[in-house]
Amino acid sequence: MPGLFAPPAAPGSALRQFRTSAFDARLDGIDGHRFTFFVISAALEEVIRSALADIVPESHIFGTRFRYDEVTGEIQSIACVPAGYGKVAVLEELRRTLPVSADRVVYVGDGSSDVHVMLHVHRIGGLTIAVSENRYLTPIARRTILSDDGLSVLIPILEELAGWDGSRIRALFAAHGLVLQDWEKIRTDSLTIRDSAMPLFAVAGGATR
Q1: Which SS3 state, helix, strand or coil, does residue 108 take?
Q2: Residue 67: pLDDT above 60?
Q3: Which residues does 45 contact at the CB level (< 8 Å), separation at least 6?
Q4: How far is residue 35 from each of residues 54, 178, 184, 187, measured CA to CA in Å?
Q5: Could you say which of 3.40.50.700, 3.40.50.1000, 3.30.360.10, 3.90.180.10 is the CATH number of the domain covering 2-175?
Q6: Model-level pTM?
Q7: Which pLDDT belongs to residue 22?
Q8: What pLDDT does 121 receive?
Q9: What is the 3-state secondary structure (H, E, C) of 42-64?
Protein backbone atom coordinates (compact mmCIF):
# COMPACT_ATOMS: atom_id res chain seq x y z
CA MET A 1 0.00 0.00 0.00
CA PRO A 2 1.50 3.36 -0.97
CA GLY A 3 1.91 6.11 1.58
CA LEU A 4 3.03 9.72 1.77
CA PHE A 5 5.34 10.66 4.62
CA ALA A 6 6.00 14.34 5.37
CA PRO A 7 8.55 14.72 8.20
CA PRO A 8 9.71 17.93 9.92
CA ALA A 9 12.23 19.91 7.94
CA ALA A 10 13.88 22.73 9.83
CA PRO A 11 17.65 22.65 9.25
CA GLY A 12 19.32 21.05 12.25
CA SER A 13 16.17 19.12 13.17
CA ALA A 14 16.00 15.43 14.01
CA LEU A 15 15.54 14.56 10.33
CA ARG A 16 19.17 15.56 9.74
CA GLN A 17 20.20 12.67 11.99
CA PHE A 18 18.57 9.96 9.87
CA ARG A 19 21.02 7.04 9.57
CA THR A 20 20.77 6.47 5.83
CA SER A 21 23.00 3.41 6.03
CA ALA A 22 21.04 1.84 8.90
CA PHE A 23 17.73 1.51 7.06
CA ASP A 24 18.48 1.40 3.34
CA ALA A 25 14.83 1.33 2.39
CA ARG A 26 13.59 2.60 5.80
CA LEU A 27 9.91 1.71 5.67
CA ASP A 28 9.71 0.46 2.09
CA GLY A 29 8.74 -3.17 1.79
CA ILE A 30 7.69 -3.60 5.43
CA ASP A 31 4.56 -5.75 5.31
CA GLY A 32 3.93 -4.59 1.76
CA HIS A 33 3.94 -0.86 2.61
CA ARG A 34 5.67 1.66 0.36
CA PHE A 35 6.42 5.22 1.47
CA THR A 36 7.45 8.36 -0.37
CA PHE A 37 9.19 11.04 1.71
CA PHE A 38 8.55 14.76 1.27
CA VAL A 39 9.60 17.81 3.26
CA ILE A 40 7.23 20.76 3.65
CA SER A 41 8.68 23.70 5.55
CA ALA A 42 8.33 27.45 5.97
CA ALA A 43 12.13 27.73 6.01
CA LEU A 44 14.04 28.94 2.95
CA GLU A 45 14.10 26.15 0.38
CA GLU A 46 17.77 26.63 -0.52
CA VAL A 47 18.76 26.26 3.14
CA ILE A 48 16.69 23.07 3.55
CA ARG A 49 18.23 21.55 0.42
CA SER A 50 21.71 22.25 1.74
CA ALA A 51 20.91 20.83 5.19
CA LEU A 52 19.30 17.66 3.80
CA ALA A 53 21.70 17.04 0.92
CA ASP A 54 22.08 13.31 0.18
CA ILE A 55 19.17 12.58 2.55
CA VAL A 56 16.08 13.86 0.72
CA PRO A 57 15.93 14.51 -3.07
CA GLU A 58 15.61 18.21 -3.95
CA SER A 59 12.41 17.48 -5.87
CA HIS A 60 10.86 16.27 -2.61
CA ILE A 61 11.57 19.49 -0.71
CA PHE A 62 9.03 22.32 -0.56
CA GLY A 63 10.09 25.48 1.25
CA THR A 64 9.83 29.24 1.00
CA ARG A 65 10.96 30.51 -2.42
CA PHE A 66 11.77 34.04 -3.54
CA ARG A 67 11.97 35.66 -6.97
CA TYR A 68 15.36 37.27 -7.47
CA ASP A 69 16.50 40.09 -9.72
CA GLU A 70 18.49 38.52 -12.57
CA VAL A 71 21.06 41.33 -12.52
CA THR A 72 21.52 42.31 -8.88
CA GLY A 73 20.40 39.06 -7.25
CA GLU A 74 18.21 41.01 -4.86
CA ILE A 75 14.88 39.62 -3.70
CA GLN A 76 12.01 40.99 -5.78
CA SER A 77 9.03 39.13 -4.36
CA ILE A 78 7.86 35.99 -2.60
CA ALA A 79 7.06 33.08 -4.91
CA CYS A 80 5.82 30.57 -2.32
CA VAL A 81 5.52 30.33 1.47
CA PRO A 82 4.38 26.88 2.65
CA ALA A 83 3.35 27.88 6.14
CA GLY A 84 -0.03 27.56 7.85
CA TYR A 85 -2.64 26.88 5.16
CA GLY A 86 0.19 26.96 2.61
CA LYS A 87 1.32 23.57 3.89
CA VAL A 88 -2.18 22.21 3.37
CA ALA A 89 -2.08 23.41 -0.25
CA VAL A 90 1.28 21.69 -0.88
CA LEU A 91 0.10 18.47 0.75
CA GLU A 92 -3.09 18.36 -1.29
CA GLU A 93 -1.15 19.02 -4.50
CA LEU A 94 1.08 16.06 -3.65
CA ARG A 95 -1.96 13.88 -3.04
CA ARG A 96 -3.34 14.84 -6.43
CA THR A 97 -0.04 14.02 -8.08
CA LEU A 98 0.54 10.72 -6.30
CA PRO A 99 -1.87 7.78 -6.11
CA VAL A 100 -2.31 8.16 -2.34
CA SER A 101 -5.61 8.04 -0.47
CA ALA A 102 -6.26 10.39 2.43
CA ASP A 103 -5.88 7.71 5.09
CA ARG A 104 -2.38 6.87 3.78
CA VAL A 105 -0.90 10.26 4.66
CA VAL A 106 1.59 10.48 7.54
CA TYR A 107 2.46 14.00 8.68
CA VAL A 108 5.17 14.74 11.25
CA GLY A 109 5.28 18.24 12.75
CA ASP A 110 7.30 20.09 15.34
CA GLY A 111 6.09 23.69 15.39
CA SER A 112 3.13 26.05 15.37
CA SER A 113 3.20 26.37 11.58
CA ASP A 114 2.11 22.72 11.43
CA VAL A 115 -1.17 23.26 13.29
CA HIS A 116 -3.39 23.83 10.24
CA VAL A 117 -1.98 20.96 8.21
CA MET A 118 -2.17 18.59 11.18
CA LEU A 119 -5.81 19.47 11.71
CA HIS A 120 -6.37 18.82 8.00
CA VAL A 121 -4.59 15.46 7.99
CA HIS A 122 -6.40 14.43 11.16
CA ARG A 123 -9.75 15.36 9.59
CA ILE A 124 -9.14 13.30 6.43
CA GLY A 125 -8.09 10.26 8.45
CA GLY A 126 -4.29 10.36 8.11
CA LEU A 127 -1.69 9.75 10.82
CA THR A 128 -0.31 12.82 12.61
CA ILE A 129 2.83 12.67 14.74
CA ALA A 130 4.20 15.48 16.91
CA VAL A 131 7.94 15.40 17.59
CA SER A 132 8.02 18.24 20.11
CA GLU A 133 6.13 19.33 23.19
CA ASN A 134 4.57 22.28 21.39
CA ARG A 135 1.39 23.07 23.32
CA TYR A 136 -0.63 23.59 20.14
CA LEU A 137 0.48 20.40 18.39
CA THR A 138 0.30 17.69 21.03
CA PRO A 139 -3.49 17.97 21.57
CA ILE A 140 -3.98 17.61 17.79
CA ALA A 141 -1.52 14.85 16.92
CA ARG A 142 -2.62 11.26 17.24
CA ARG A 143 0.87 10.36 18.48
CA THR A 144 3.70 12.32 20.10
CA ILE A 145 7.25 11.04 20.26
CA LEU A 146 10.24 12.80 21.79
CA SER A 147 13.76 11.77 20.79
CA ASP A 148 17.03 13.21 19.49
CA ASP A 149 17.07 10.67 16.67
CA GLY A 150 14.96 11.03 13.56
CA LEU A 151 14.50 7.27 13.33
CA SER A 152 12.17 7.50 16.32
CA VAL A 153 9.27 8.48 14.04
CA LEU A 154 9.35 4.95 12.64
CA ILE A 155 7.94 3.63 15.91
CA PRO A 156 4.44 5.21 15.78
CA ILE A 157 4.30 4.49 12.04
CA LEU A 158 5.04 0.80 12.59
CA GLU A 159 2.58 0.63 15.47
CA GLU A 160 -0.29 2.55 13.87
CA LEU A 161 -0.02 1.49 10.22
CA ALA A 162 1.68 -1.90 10.28
CA GLY A 163 0.20 -3.02 13.60
CA TRP A 164 3.56 -4.06 15.04
CA ASP A 165 4.07 -4.57 18.76
CA GLY A 166 7.05 -3.43 20.81
CA SER A 167 8.99 -6.69 20.60
CA ARG A 168 8.79 -6.79 16.82
CA ILE A 169 9.90 -3.15 16.54
CA ARG A 170 12.84 -3.78 18.86
CA ALA A 171 13.84 -6.78 16.76
CA LEU A 172 13.82 -4.67 13.59
CA PHE A 173 16.08 -2.04 15.13
CA ALA A 174 18.35 -4.75 16.56
CA ALA A 175 18.68 -6.32 13.11
CA HIS A 176 20.21 -3.01 11.97
CA GLY A 177 22.56 -2.74 14.92
CA LEU A 178 20.42 -0.31 16.92
CA VAL A 179 19.00 -0.54 20.43
CA LEU A 180 15.81 1.14 21.62
CA GLN A 181 16.97 2.41 24.98
CA ASP A 182 14.75 4.19 27.53
CA TRP A 183 11.55 3.69 25.52
CA GLU A 184 8.88 5.01 27.86
CA LYS A 185 5.21 5.32 27.03
CA ILE A 186 3.76 8.15 29.10
CA ARG A 187 0.63 10.25 29.31
CA THR A 188 1.07 13.84 30.44
CA ASP A 189 -1.58 16.23 31.77
CA SER A 190 -0.54 19.88 31.58
CA LEU A 191 -2.42 22.37 33.72
CA THR A 192 -2.08 25.62 35.65
CA ILE A 193 -3.83 26.30 38.98
CA ARG A 194 -4.30 29.87 40.21
CA ASP A 195 -6.15 31.64 42.98
CA SER A 196 -9.63 32.51 41.86
CA ALA A 197 -10.61 36.17 41.50
CA MET A 198 -14.25 35.21 41.91
CA PRO A 199 -15.87 35.54 45.35
CA LEU A 200 -16.29 32.39 47.33
CA PHE A 201 -19.80 31.12 47.86
CA ALA A 202 -20.97 29.94 51.25
CA VAL A 203 -23.16 26.90 51.18
CA ALA A 204 -25.24 26.11 54.24
CA GLY A 205 -27.35 23.11 54.83
CA GLY A 206 -29.88 22.38 57.50
CA ALA A 207 -32.17 19.65 58.56
CA THR A 208 -35.92 20.03 58.43
CA ARG A 209 -38.38 18.15 60.47
Answers
A1: strand
A2: yes
A3: 61, 62, 63, 64, 65
A4: 18, 22, 27, 29
A5: 3.40.50.1000
A6: 0.77
A7: 41
A8: 95
A9: EEEHHHHHHHCCCCCCHHHEEEE
